Amino acid sequence: MVSARMNEIKKGTNKFYMEDDKNEMTAEICFIPEKNCLVVNHTYVDRSLRGKGVGKQLVDKVACYARDERKKIIPVCSYAKKVMTEEEKYRDLIEDQDYDKRY
């Protein structure tokens, strides 16, 4: 069974991720940085961690990073898109509603 060190989200190159005690990646959210936005294109959570809020923690982390960098987010990843459009606290970060046509 994989156990991530909860709440220990690390910053990598164009991603945020979590590792287990063996330093194996157990969850990640990836993005492509552009001039004024981050294109969130992938979210992964290990089966053993699904349903525990890890995916939402990752979305929140990239949202905080975007705010700190004064950038918008284009969520092309289906999970990130769902979370960001359903939760009011992220709506101000969404670049536009035509992102599916652009990516």
From TrEMBL:
Q: What is this protein called?
A: Uncharacterized protein
Species this protein is from: Parasporobacterium paucivorans DSM 15970
What GO annotations for molecular function exist for this entry? acyltransferase activity, transferring groups other than amino-acyl groups
Q: Can you tell which superkingdom this protein's organism belongs to?
A: Bacteria
Annotated Pfam families: Acetyltransf_CG
What residues does the N-acetyltransferase domain cover? 1-103, 8-95
Task: Spell out the InterPro entries in the cross-references.
Answer: Acyl_CoA_acyltransferase, Gcn5-rel_NAT, GNAT_dom, GNAT_YJDJ
